[in-house]
Amino acid sequence: MLKIYNKLIILMFFFLFISSNSYTNVFPSESVYHLNVSLFDQNNNKIYIKDLSGKIQIFSMIYTKCKTTCPIIVENMKNLEKLIPEKIMKNVHFSLVTLDSLRDNSETLKNFMKEKNIDSNNWSLFFSSEKETLELAISLGIKYKKESDGNYIHSNLILLIDKNGVIKFQHPGLMNNFDDILYSLYKICE
Amino acid sequence: MIKKFIFFVLFFFIFFSFAFSINLFIQRNNIIYIKEGFYIPLFKENEINNIYVKNFFIDIYSVTNIEYRKFIKNNIFWNKNKIKNIFSDFNYLNHWNKNFKYIQNSPIVNVSWYSCNEYCKLYNKRLPTIDEWEYIVYRSFNENNNYIQEILNWYTKPVKPILTSRESINNNCCNVYGMNGIIWEWVKDFNSIVIIGSDSEGGDLEQLLFCGTASVNSVNPSDYVSFMRFSFRSSLQAKYNISSLGFRCVKDI
C-alpha cells in the first residue's frame, strides 16, 4: 500500500516538474515576464514579475511623494477602471510600481492606497530594489531621473500588458480620453 | 633594538605585500582607479551645477569580441540563437562571421543593454552611470583643450566596417583607453535623460508624457559633442544592438 503511495507521490512530482517547466516556456519571446525582477507588494509579500501573468495588467510607475502628475495618473487609472465592463474586468488587474525605492515601502504604499481610495481587490502597489526598479523601467520604456531633492522626473505612461507580458498599448498618463486603450483592451479579450 | 627592527621589517613586509596584492588585483582585472570629484553636466537642474562622483574602478579597455565570446560560452542563455526578443533585437552579434580572427581584439559591438549588464554582473562589476562616464570625459577636457575637437573629428567619420584594435587608441586624462575614437558605449542609466521643453521636441504630446521637465536646462549650449552623446543615448532602447555601440564595466569600491 505504502509503495503505491510513494509511487504516486513521485509521479505527482514528476508531472508538477514537467508542468512547471512548460509553464515558464509559455511566454512569448518579447514578454517582459522573462525578466528576473522581484517585487514587494503593499503587504510586504515578495513576488516575481512573472507572477503577474494570467491577468491583463494596467501598469504604471509612479512614486507616492509625487505631487504633480502621479495623482493625475492614478485618478486616470481609476476612471479607466470605471469604464471597463464587468465581464472584462474579471481578467484585468491594476498594478503600480514605485520609482522611489529609497523612500517607499509597504507602509507608504498602504497609506497611499487609503488616501486615494484604491480598491485592493483589483489593485496592487509594489516596491523593489533600486537596481531592479531601473531594469523594470528600462524594459517598459519608462524614463526617469532622480533629482537632487529626492524627487523624480519621469515618463507619464499607463501601459496595457497582456496575460503573457507583451506590451500592447502605451497610454499617455495625463490624457483622459481612453478610447484607444479601451479599444486595445477589447481587442485582446476577443 | 631588535624588537624595533623586527617590527620595522614586519611593517614593510605587510605594506609591500598589501601594495603588491592591490597591484595584482588591478592588473588581473584590467581596471584603473578613478578619484572622486565634481563635474559639470550638460544639463543642470535647479541652479545646481556640480555633480559629485564617488571613487570607482573602471575597465582600462572596452570589452572585446574574444572576451565576449568567452562569456557566451559559459552562458548559453545569451547565445545568438537562444536569446529572447525582449533582451535583444535581430542585430545581436551580427558582425560575427568567419573572419573572427581579425576582429577578436577589437571592441565588441551589436550587444544590447541587457547582455552588457549580465556580462558585468558575472565579473562582480556593473555598467558605468552617465555621471561616471561623463566625469572622465570632463576631466580629460580640462587637461587637454583639444580633446573635444578630437572627439568632433571622430564623430564626422563613418564607422569602419572592421574596428581597430582597442589598444591603438590614445588614452585620456585617467589612462582609460578608447572611450572616444572607436565606439560609443552603453551606460547603466541611459533612460534617465528626459529632455523636453523646446519647440523642436514636438509640442503638447511630449509634455503630456513627462513630469517636472521644466527644470532641466543646458549649461553649455556650445558643448556640441555632449549634445550628440545625450541625444544618442536618449534615442536608445535596452534591446537595441548597434554596430558602433559597445561597453566597458566599472567596479565599486
Walk me through the structure.
The complex is a heterodimer of chains A (190) and B (253). Chain A has 190 residues and is α+β, with helices and mostly antiparallel strands. Chain A is built from six helices and nine strands. Chain A starts with a helix and ends with a helix. Chain B contains eight helices and ten strands. Chain B has a three-stranded antiparallel sheet with strand order 1-5-10. Chain B has a two-stranded antiparallel ribbon with strand order 2-4. The interface between A and B is medium-sized, with 36 and 28 residues. β7 of chain A pairs antiparallel with β7 of chain B.
Brief overview, please?
Chain A is of the alpha+beta class and 190 residues long. Chain A has one domain (32-189): Glutaredoxin (3-Layer(aba) Sandwich). Chain A has helices spanning 2-25, 70-83, 86-89, 106-115, 130-139, 179-189, and strands spanning 38-41, 46-48, 56-62, 92-98, 123-127, 144-146, 152-155, 157-161, 167-172.
Strand content of chain B: 5-15%
**CATH architecture name of chain A:** 3-Layer(aba) Sandwich
Structural class of chain A: alpha+beta
**Strand order of the main beta sheet of chain B, please?**
1-5-10
Strand content of chain A: 15-25%
Low-confidence stretches of chain B: 197-206
- Average pLDDT metric of chain B: 80
What's the CATH first level of chain A?
Answer: Alpha Beta
First and last CA, distance of chain A: 49 Å
